[in-house]
Design brief:
It contains 11 helices and 6 strands. By secondary structure, it is mostly helical. Strands 1-3-2 form a 3-stranded mixed beta sheet. Strands 4-6-5 form a 3-stranded antiparallel beta sheet. The longest helix has 18 residues. The chain is elongated. It starts with a helix and ends with a helix.
Length: about 200
């Protein structure tokens, strides 16, 4: 019953047949995160859609219902364009809260394209705006899983780029960023830069 309430809170006033609600709830096996990620994947793939101001959930087949939280998260990643996945991986590597301008420079995107990417991630509820206009993942698990799904070599490259970008942004006046730079360069495997 709690999982059904959660589904109704995610999709208020949705047109959902009872057997579809049952299938969604059963596939999540009592895990609210699994249910949330399954709904997110269905939304991204257009299997749940907004019509005349109401959410519609048509009948779903077993191929629509991931059998684990990991499978649900893979379905979300698979439904996103590559550039959105790239944005989310870079945001996860940067930290729990992300300066959008730093993220833009790390990504190497122009401002308008970056705004489009951020809007896309926000609409999918994969990023939210936190205090001081910083971006954040809606829950710590989302960032953790995004990091776990990325390749180590990619994370190292991103950490190195964050260090270089931060130094360039602050014109070498980085004493106030010493801990952050040490962390990113350390994660990049650059012990010499991490020690400075």
């Amino acid at each position: 019953e709690e999982m059904e309430k959660m589904l109704r809170s995610i999709l208020p006033e949705a047109e959902v047949a009872p057997e579809v609600v049952k299938a969604l709830v059963e596939s999540a096996k009592g895990n609210p995160l699994h249910l949330e990620e399954t709904v997110r994947a269905l939304l991204l793939r257009g299997r749940i859609f907004l019509k005349e101001g109401k959410w519609w959930v048509p009948s779903l087949g077993s191929e629509d219902l991931p059998d684990s939280l990991d499978a649900a998260e893979r379905a979300v990643r698979g439904a996103l364009p590559q550039r959105a996945n790239s944005l989310l991986t870079r945001a996860a590597v940067i930290g729990p809260q992300v300066d959008p301008e730093l993220l833009q420079e790390v990504m190497g995107q122009d401002e308008m394209e970056m705004l489009d990417l951020i809007d896309e991630a926000r609409r999918a509820r994969l990023l939210s705006v936190a205090e001081s206009d910083l971006l954040a993942f809606p829950a710590a698990y989302a960032r953790k899983h995004r990091l776990a799904a990325s390749e180590e070599v990619e994370r190292r490259e991103i950490h190195a780029r964050v260090g270089v970008v931060q130094e360039a942004r602050h014109g070498g006046d980085v004493a106030h960023l010493a801990d952050e730079l040490a962390y990113h360069y350390g994660q990049a495997g650059n012990a010499a830069r991490a020690a400075h």
